[in-house]
Write a structure and sequence with these properties.
Layout (H helix, E strand, L loop, with lengths): L18 H10 L3 H14 L3 E2 L5 H29 L15 H11 L50 H12 L3 H11 L12 H8 L3 H11 L12 H11 L5 H7 L2 H5 L3 H8 L3 H12 L21 E5 L5 E5 L8 E2 L1 H7 L3 H38 L1 H6 L9 H8 L3 H8 L3 E4 L2 E4 L7 E2 L8 E2 H13 L9 H10 L6 H10 L5 H15 L2
Parallel strand pairs: 2-5
Antiparallel strand pairs: 1-4, 2-3, 5-6, 7-8
Length: 520
């Protein structure tokens, strides 16, 4: 069979992901902080993009002041040049310069004192403590017309756990060799302040005596915060109790049997500790006051405040007003006049045309992003109207497909919009993902229920139970079935464990002990 080349004409459809389309998709799922950074980078590299000024009038006044200052500096420079060249200056301006180097030169050459005799006319001093200005008028910067200060100048820098402990080392370990061992152990602490390193391996690596390692570790465990350098939870609690002088034999037995405490096995704990029920509950109260993670107070990263993207308010007619938060809306302008004036040059026309195309695409993408967020948020509010009016018990089951079909968009688009976006409602601040929950089946023809609403109902039932009538998982299943919720016992147990709620046996022991001590 002979091979030959043939030419055919054929039509086909395909989805092409252009770079701009991919960037538009990424803009949908960006947070406010990420979007601000992205826009700042675009403004920096695109000469046609700029941020809008906050107040045009203020900017004009500032520009006039800067022009006046530039004119004054020019006159001063001219006077200096005239004076340095030997030109005799017979004007009234020379005495105004009795300041700095000019004043010192005239003092030497004219044998006179031209220092500033009116110090109150100078630049007002900055405030040393701005929070005390209203209380102490005599402090620097406390008078009227004081120079504006920057609050960032008065913010204390964040100290890490490692730096905080390093500052205390010279006071407990003055020896250089011990300090080197201690610094190595400080570097191996985790974020909670626990030491998971093997002292034998550390001693072998450093060439130190194991006894010295134990002595250095004992000294490090006396540092602040209490409980740091512990190797497990029991040792952490023991260190804190020793510093409070409460580590007696009974407390030692309690700390050594934390697994019994987790199971609320009070009968065995009373026998091991040799105390009655009242003393045991007092000891439990002291344990609850301790910090199981002593290093958690030192943040490893920078915490960011959550800003809502959508604000929901109640209207006068009983409906809901859904608005985009103006503080999170990106603001960027395209300078068309700059393009018209500069693009006349043939060499720069192609570059500026590309910049104009990218700028217009960015503004359209940001506008489309805002419209898409508004559509999704409005549909969520319409679907969850009962939740906004009555609370979590009336949260409806909702999925992405329902919202996508209602607003005529794809599920993936709705998923990107609801990622890391927050809505401020009269019920509080919620992530948009919060309103999408699994549906729980109802009893014979009833309406389905939201999984979050069911978890809230289980939590409420357990909080309202009495010591004599602690609800088991089977009891909770029966109560939910009477209220129209069909749920298996293993699902109730899974929800209860996810909410960190103990079993019915453990809750019964704890509540009966507390009721007995309270005299009920």
């Amino acid at each position: 069979m002979a091979l030959s080349a043939n030419l055919y004409l054929r039509q086909s459809q395909s989805l092409v992901m252009t770079p701009q389309l991919m960037q538009s998709i990424q803009l949908l799922q960006m947070t406010h902080f990420e979007l601000s950074q992205f826009i700042a980078q675009e403004v920096e590299k695109n000469p046609l993009l700029e941020f809008p000024s906050g107040d045009a009038e203020t900017g004009s006044e500032r520009g006039a002041d800067e022009d006046d200052g530039y004119a004054r500096q020019t006159e001063d420079a001219k006077s200096d040049d005239d004076y340095d060249s030997g030109t005799e200056v017979m004007s009234g301006d020379w005495s105004d310069r009795a300041d700095g180097a000019g004043a010192n030169r005239m003092n030497d050459e004219l044998d006179a004192n031209y220092a500033n005799v009116f110090p109150d006319d100078g630049v007002p001093p900055r405030a040393d403590a701005p929070e005390l200005i209203s209380q102490w008028k005599s402090m620097p910067g406390g008078g009227e017309g004081a120079e504006a200060y920057d609050l960032d100048d008065f913010v204390a820098g964040q100290v890490s756990l490692r730096d905080y402990l390093t500052q205390q080392l010279p006071f407990v370990l003055p020896d250089v060799a011990d300090s080197l061992i201690a610094q190595n152990l400080v570097d191996q602490l985790d974020e909670a302040g626990y030491l998971h390193a093997d002292l034998g391996e550390v001693a072998e690596r450093l060439g130190a005596d194991p006894a010295d390692m134990e002595r250095v570790l004992a000294a490090l465990q006396t540092l602040d915060p209490p409980g740091v350098f512990a190797r497990n939870l029991a040792e952490c609690l023991a260190i804190q109790l020793r510093q409070k002088d409460r580590y007696d034999p009974a407390m030692q037995a309690l700390v050594g049997n934390l697994e019994l405490l987790a199971r609320r096995d009070f009968a065995t704990l009373k026998r091991l500790c040799g105390v009655d029920e009242e003393d045991l509950l007092d000891m439990l109260g002291e344990i609850r006051q301790l910090n199981p993670k002593p290093g958690s107070g030192f943040e490893a990263g920078i915490s960011e405040a959550i800003m809502p993207d959508v604000v929901v308010r109640a209207a006068s007619d009983g409906s809901w007003l859904v608005e985009l938060n103006p503080d999170t809306l990106p603001r960027v302008l395209v300078n068309q006049s700059y393009f018209a004036n500069v693009a006349k040059n043939g060499e720069d026309h192609s570059f500026l045309s590309e910049c104009l195309q990218n700028a217009n695409w960015l503004t359209r993408s940001l506008d489309q992003r805002a419209k898409t967020i508004m559509k999704v948020a409005t549909e969520i509010v319409r679907q969850q109207d009962a939740f906004l009016m009555h609370g979590v018990d009336h949260l409806r089951p909702l999925n992405l497909k329902t919202v996508a079909d209602a607003i005529k968009m794809h599920e993936s688009t709705v998923s990107r919009v609801t990622s890391n976006k927050y809505m401020l409602t009269p019920r509080g601040l919620f992530e948009l993902k919060y309103f999408f929950t699994v549906s729980i089946g109802a009893v014979e023809g009833g309406d389905s229920h939201s999984a979050e609403a069911v978890r809230h109902k289980i939590r409420t039932l357990i909080m309202q139970e009495s010591p004599e009538a602690v609800l088991s998982d089977d009891d909770i299943v029966d109560i939910l079935k009477k209220s129209g919720i069909e749920l298996a016992r293993r699902t109730v147990a899974k929800y209860r464990e996810a909410m960190n709620i103990a079993s019915s046996v453990q809750r019964r022991r704890e509540k009966r002990a507390l009721a007995k001590v309270a005299g009920f």
